[in-house]
Design a protein that fits this description.
- A hairpin with a 7-residue loop joins strand 7 and strand 8.
- The strands form eight sheets. The chain has a six-stranded antiparallel beta sheet with strand order 21-26-22-23-24-25. A five-stranded mixed beta sheet has the order 18-19-17-16-20, covered by helices on one side. It has a four-stranded antiparallel beta sheet with strand order 12-13-15-14.
- The longest helix is centred in the middle third of the chain and has 25 residues.
- The chain has 819 residues and is of the alpha+beta class.
């Protein structure tokens, strides 16, 4: 009584866990929940599959992985002391590896082992630790898959198939007694290599060159090539079994000998503690917040400028999807940024749902209707939406311009930029920044070292088009993108970003709002046909000014330049010269310069003098001299004009081309409708149909919440009870084996259920639902009437009603199991 039998299988070890421990396993390995296992045995089977074990190993930190690697080269099963010795060496924990608080490897091992146990990668008591078989196969050494520890096979594995005569020669050369039993010979040689004193005596007789050979193999890889006539040092090692043949040209240093040379340590450098993220600068937190807020506002205005430039229809979409290199260069020139930065802004607008394909036959990118709603929000709310979209996006702008595994170019907005690891890496980088003191800018190298320690197996990926660690590349892109977006300021995490991560968007917007400058309602006109906006402008003023003038330079103040083309653009929107004069007078803090007034009047006088319509297209003008001037101009040859009447010309190009051609010749024509009315150009008219933002590509199954975990654990427990308890036949027959359930008649089913209602006992039933799916359930019947049984279903943890005709079999649980 009170004694427990050590588990013999992983299923037994899982069955002995409490509900909280099972929930922790399912939370750490959510792939085990798809679908919910029917019982503990199925859960253990699924936890031992190759795909699931690989996914679990990829989420281990460096020391937990080193612990698993040590178990993979330890005897199976291995006691705790053996595992500790492989991590600390023969001298046990000498304190060489300590953290800042003085803790040692011996202090760190229980937590690492606890992680492996929680994730069902290791099971068994401390005196019999077992690594699951698939994990051992993945981490144990083999010629095709060298061990991460750099250790080779054991003597027994390396000598498998070796002739007895060869074994006898090795024993004799090593000074061991001869034996005709191959098993005894292998045991004797293994014992020599694991005996510190005798192994030391043997190596004392080795030539110096032989020891040099061992030094090159001891930390791996343990394999080496030899010639048919090896050198004397290699021959000395081979004769004594310190190098064992794998093939005619390959030898290996056996594991036992390597561990002696390593002083018993499985890893050259155990890493029980995560490396610290070091600081490169400590800045004033207020300066950090101000810099980040300024960059956040610039991010908002940059995205707005990008989408305004695509208001009338953006660039065409490549046949394979995405932007062409030429269009990306044009976008970069428009935004006055480099091409990689332009790719980031384009991808950010796309991730936020502000940009999409218009779906037309001639497919182009254009703003979505959501852009108009976004543009009406305050600047801080617009930034929060951009930042939130960036944090969750799996699209990785840094890949644009590279190549995929097949050498094909990766384009911005293309279909191959999703990397499921991106959101997790971004959040982890920001979490590490948040752990630093406010105003602290981290050293990128130490940040990358920390990330590699946390996920050492999430390494190189061929899909990135290179051999670099994908997580490291995403982390570096995260740092640069954070600075562009205003997540960080001068390299340090801003206060509004901390609020976004901890408290949500509302708190972040509240902290950011006071740091963003208030929009201005005025500009400063200058005599050189320029206007200066000393800060951000109110939206109506900014929209009108962007139509009336071209942006010449940006910065703390924006400089606009008025040109004949920009004035004509404003007139095309339906404004008159009087409207433009009134607008400038109302919003300028300085008098309207006379040259600007003359420019507006001059362009307005000529605007609409020529009229363009569709014949294929035509030009009409009341002034015959103007038409004559156009006809004799050599630049009009491409338009293929001919006179239809004294005041009309016909062209063999479409109206849009004719309109653009005459403007390039210096005229200011206006388009007209079929009724002869001037067509007014309205900005922002080109929109896509309603679009949803691109959904992030998940990395594996989603992490289940507490409700789902609780329901899954109850279902697994109930299914396990049904599969393992002993049941009794309805007619008091001898108990049947666990897991068996024979079919019962309708009368037997009804009688057994009615008896269970009276006695309050639990039943094990076989049930077929309306879709024909069969299952087994443990129920406690409450009421039987009208051909239905109402019962508490232990599997679903709720009261349900079952038609009696769908119950195929029923059995009463044995008394001890029912209790």
């Amino acid at each position: 009584m009170g004694m427990t039998t050590p588990p013999r299988t992983l299923a037994e070890a899982l069955r002995a866990r409490d509900d909280e421990s099972l929930a922790a396993l399912l939370h750490a390995r959510p792939d085990l929940l798809t679908p919910v296992p029917s019982d503990i045995t199925q859960l253990a089977t699924r936890a031992g599959t190759r795909a699931s074990v690989v996914r679990a190993l990829e989420h281990l930190d460096r020391f937990a992985l080193q612990t698993a690697e040590a178990l993979a080269v330890a005897p199976d099963p291995a006691p705790y002391e053996t595992l500790l010795g492989l991590l600390t060496g023969d001298g046990r924990d000498d304190g060489e590896h300590r953290d800042d608080a003085g803790a040692t490897i011996a202090d760190a091992l229980p937590a690492a082992l606890g992680t492996l146990r929680e994730q069902a990668l290791v099971w068994g008591e401390d005196d019999r630790l077992r690594l699951v078989r698939i994990a051992r196969e993945l981490l144990a050494p083999s010629p095709q898959h060298p061990s991460p520890t750099g250790l080779g096979p054991t003597v027994a594995e390396a000598t498998a198939g070796m002739s007895p005569g060869r074994l006898q020669d090795i024993l004799a050369a090593a000074g061991l007694p001869a034996t005709h039993d191959p098993v005894s010979a292998v045991t004797s040689l293994s014992a020599l290599f694991t005996d510190r004193a005798r192994m030391g005596e043997l190596l004392d007789t080795a030539p110096a060159e032989a020891l040099s050979v061992l030094d090159r193999l001891v930390w791996g890889p343990p394999y080496g090539e030899v010639t048919p006539n090896p050198t004397p040092p290699v021959k000395w090692l081979r004769d004594r079994g310190l190098l064992l043949p794998v093939s005619t040209r390959t030898v290996v240093l056996p594991r036992e000998a390597a561990l002696h040379l390593r002083a018993g340590r499985a890893h050259r450098v155990p890493e029980p503690w995560p490396p610290a993220v070091e600081a490169v600068a400590n800045r004033d937190p207020q300066a950090v917040d101000s810099a980040a807020a300024g960059q956040a506002f610039l991010a908002v205005t940059t995205v707005e400028e990008l989408l305004k430039s695509w208001n009338d229809g953006g660039p065409a979409i490549l046949r394979a999807g995405g932007l062409s290199v030429r269009e990306l260069k044009k976008t970069a020139a428009t935004l006055d940024v480099s091409e990689p930065v332009a790719a980031f802004w384009v991808e950010l607008a796309y991730a936020a749902g502000l940009l999409a394909s218009d779906g037309e036959a001639d497919e182009r990118y254009a703003p979505t209707p959501a852009y108009d709603d976004w543009a009406e929000l305050p600047a801080q709310d617009r930034w929060v939406r951009l930042a939130t979209a960036w944090l969750a996006a799996t699209r990785t702008a840094g890949l644009a311009g590279g190549q995929d595994a097949k050498g094909r170019a990766l384009s911005a907005l293309g279909p191959d930029l999703d990397r499921s690891a991106a959101p997790e890496v971004r959040h982890r980088v920001l979490a590490l920044l948040a752990a630093l003191e406010p105003g602290t800018a981290p050293d990128p190298e130490t940040l990358l070292a920390r990330l590699r320690w946390e996920r050492p197996l999430r390494g190189a990926s061929a899909s990135t088009g290179g051999t670099a660690d994908l997580r490291s590349r995403i982390a570096l892109w995260t740092l640069s993108e954070s600075e562009l977006l205003g997540i960080t300021g001068r390299g340090a995490l801003a206060a509004h970003t901390r609020a976004l991560l901890d408290s949500g968007p509302a708190e972040a917007a509240t902290l950011l709002a006071p740091l963003i400058p208030e929009p201005l309602d005025h500009i400063l006109l200058q005599a050189d046909l320029t206007a200066v906006a000393p800060g951000p402008l109110e939206r109506p003023l900014a929209d009108m000014l962007s139509a009336l003038a071209d942006i010449e330079s940006k910065g703390g103040a924006t400089v606009y330049r008025f040109t004949p083309g920009s004035v004509r653009r404003a007139l095309d929107t339906g404004q008159s010269a009087a409207d433009l004069h009134a607008f400038l007078t109302a919003h300028s803090r300085t008098p309207v310069p006379q040259p600007l007034s003359y420019l507006i009047d001059d362009v307005a006088r000529r605007h609409g003098h020529l009229r363009i319509g569709a014949a294929s297209s035509y030009v009409r003008c009341d002034d015959e001299a103007v038409l004559n001037e156009i006809l004799v101009d050599k630049r009009s040859a491409a338009l293929r004009l001919r006179r239809l009447a004294p005041t009309a010309l016909a062209a063999q190009v479409d109206p849009a081309s004719l309109l653009e051609g005459l403007r390039e010749m210096g005229y200011a024509p206006a388009a007209e409708s079929a009724e002869g009315d001037v067509l007014i150009t309205r900005s922002g008219a080109r929109r896509t149909p309603p679009r949803t933002p691109p959904a992030p590509v998940p990395e594996g199954p989603p992490v289940p919440d507490a409700t789902l975990l609780g329901a899954a654990v109850r279902a697994i427990r109930a299914g396990d009870t049904a599969a393992t308890v002993v049941r009794k036949d309805p007619a008091d027959a001898p108990a049947a084996p666990a897991g068996s359930l024979t079919r019962t008649t309708s009368a037997e089913t009804l009688a057994t259920v009615q008896a269970a209602v009276m006695t309050g006992s639990a039943l094990w039933i076989g049930y077929v639902n309306a879709d024909g799916a069969a299952s087994q359930r443990v129920i406690a019947p409450v009421r039987v009437e009208g051909g239905f049984v109402t019962a508490y279903d232990h599997t679903a943890d709720e009261v349900r009603t079952y038609p009696l005709h769908r119950i195929t079999s029923v059995a009463e649980l044995a008394d001890d199991a029912a209790r």
